Amino acid sequence: MKRSIWFLLVALLVVSLALSSCGSTTETITVATDATWPPFEYVDETTQEIVGFDIDLITAIAEKQGLEIEIVNVPWDSLLAGMANCQYDVSISAMTITDERAEQFGFSDPYFAAGQIVTVQASNTEINGPEDLAGHTVGVQLGTTGDIEAQNMPGVEVKNYDDIGLAFQDLINGQIDAVIADNPLALGYVGQNPDELKTVGEAFTDEYYGIAVCATNTELIDQINQGLAAVKAEGLIEELTGEWLMGGQ
To answer: Taking the complete model, does pTM exceed 0.85, yes or no?
Structure first.
């Protein structure tokens, strides 16, 4: 009798441990970002951590929804391909919502309004907007909406970069005449180099950033949207805008 009770207790303990283990397992969501777009995402030189507006936003959304996330730094072209085949669960990377991209993966509701703008050297008086770019060399990041816009401009010589920061550095060094990039990104670089760079004209496209999600995971899209709505209601977008775009890094 004692032996039977002992075996029963052991069996109950094993079942209890198994159930406890299953209940504590949380699936990790892989979040891809191209950490070359300050102030939205970049690698802090001191800590070597990925930081920025987007990183704070997705972290807050994950906390709201009880999601465990792992953020990985991925080059832009690999990021887009990886999202299209669901290699990554989510991507937040100052990504403009476009019809073409929406055919390959899902998008959250928009979280930030942005548009393309032209940046030139501070001393440049010849280029005052996109209408003046014909006959000039313009730097863009490959595969971005800035690249698409530049390719459609008659007479513009487009120079592609894998890292938009290299385009701005070439602009400072006089190796190209202008850069086309997202307005908040451009303002960030101008803010860091006010004596060398300036934006000209107004943003000439209407664009909105969204969080990309694997197209087959509709449940995750719903979770992201719920978390995004919650942090928006708390004023987080305005807070992050003040911290990262207005206050600087």
So the answer is: no
